[in-house]
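Appendix B, record 7
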Amino acid sequence: MQETTTTQPSWAVEQGRRIAAFWRAHRALRLVAMVAVALAINVMTWPSLWVSPQDGLDGSWQIALHLAADQGMAFGREIGFTYGPLGFLVFPLLVTGPTYALAFIATFAMRALLILGLVVGGRRAFGNGLIAVPIAYVGAALFFTFPSEIGGLLALVVALLFIQQPCRTRRWVLISSGLMGVATGMLLLIKLDGGIIAIAVLGVTAWVQGRGRAFAVWAGSGVVTTSVLWLATGNSPADIPRWIAWSAEIVSGYSGATMLEQPGRAWEYAVFLPLAVGLLALSAYAWRTRPMVQRLALSAVLALGVWATFKHGFVRHDSHAPFAIASIGVLPAVVVWREPALRIAGVVLAIVGLFFAIQSTSEPTAHLLDPRGRPQSAWIQAEMMADASARADEYAVDRQRLRDRLKVPPAILRRIGKDGVHITPFEVAVAWTYGLNWHPLPQFQSFSTGTTALDHVNGDALRGSSAPRYVLRANVKRTDSQSPIWQSPDENLALLCRYVPVVSTTRWQLLERSVNRCGAPMLIGMAEARAGRPVNVPRAGAGHIVFARVHWSPDIGERTLSVLFKPSRIPEIRLAGAWGKGRYRIPAALLDAPLVLRAPVPRGMPARPANLLRTERMTLIYPPQAGVDFYEVPIRPR
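Structure tokens (predicted):
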């Protein structure tokens, strides 16, 4: 019988196996350490005031996203906004218990993943975690201002990391592509423009990693995730096209409707633009030795991310700018700088960007970067997810604080009762504070109706059979130098014709639905208006509304500038008369809407309300020239 022998591995082979095993374990330990560091930074930079709902323009639409999710409102039918049915996830506010818990978990996870991406990328970029950690810490401290933009930045960071160092095996390429598809679907339903950026950068990433098969996995998982979450939030597939159309209108009209240049911030252009150009140029040079496809993908992804960041920070150039500058400050941490000189340049870019981002915030530097008290705040907020009693106490405190600010008269609250009410132009916080039956128009805040298509959506809703019984209107004089009744002109005309005031104070006015009191519009005058030359508003009968339509369209250069950045200037009109006199800006896309200039004063109105005008003359300030048509609409007394 032949004896069999077992061949023993040589000493060198055995040692090689031991070294490989140790290296695998070492890599796992290193990853665990980096995850721990990311979690620690997340907790040490956690904002302490996120949970408290706020009134005002921004605070109100954030509350509205929670109310819409809690009430199961149909996006694309009952409500439309650039944020989708998962928009509440990036605003952990104590509006309702379930939405708060989901938002806290989602925000914590997205922040932690972004910080982890910066730590992992920074270690690769600079070859030293001691440099990466401070960059991630300062960036996380700065990003608290706009949690809604973290998702888009996270997608950009993931794309740059995976394109530069794709997964090594086919299996992990497909797994990572599937996870990117899930993230894309979620981001798309959180905010449409952020989702579009995710589609672009993560789609390119999947293709570069594994070509057609990986791209198919990414696209398939993204479609499935979007569909499942859309249905899970109580929405109908039939409403998807309309929600996308409405959201696209909001995005397209955003620049013209909300552009702003806050005084004293011009220096931020001189900081952001050189940093952005330097980052793009140095990155392109660092990637010069990579394969052409990879190099083009990296350059395109980074350029798209920088452009999106620039628009976010500088279209509405106010407190949005620090986020944009901080983004430029952290992006060098996810570019692999192979040469020592480039690493030094990357560190300098990061330091300069984060330094000026801190300077542009309104927060004192010591308070912004001080970690004391933040872990405790994070723990308390986490406990509230399970502690109904603590949430109830917080609800009571926050509601009383908002009641002291809003001061809606008891007579108005008694009149509304349990009936549906829409709140205009923006103070949705009233609905949550007083527990009202919120029945919003699709564009629930007037400032978001930056195009005639969206304006008609709200006007048609008020004229339809499902219109709310009551509309509570705040006596707001202007927002960003815009007249409140010109932010949604067709909605305002529908309110005049279909609703009558039942309770009025100097601050609040309650309107109740009535029969249509208006006749057909009739042209009563035409004029060629030139900048600086007053145009008299034609006289009409005592029981008539007078409105104007202004005919002017920006040239191709101005339209291109509006798409790429923002218009150089918003149309502006000066009004003269008994009420409402002053200078008002109006988005170019709304000039052809019915701009009410004069209307009969309903009985019971307080003196000189901001939502009615008595205009005698109008003067173009910009554009230089435009045609104006004047119309009268007969309106019967109530």
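Remarks on this record: Residues 1-6 have pLDDT under 50 and may be disordered. DSSP finds 20 helices and 15 strands in the chain.
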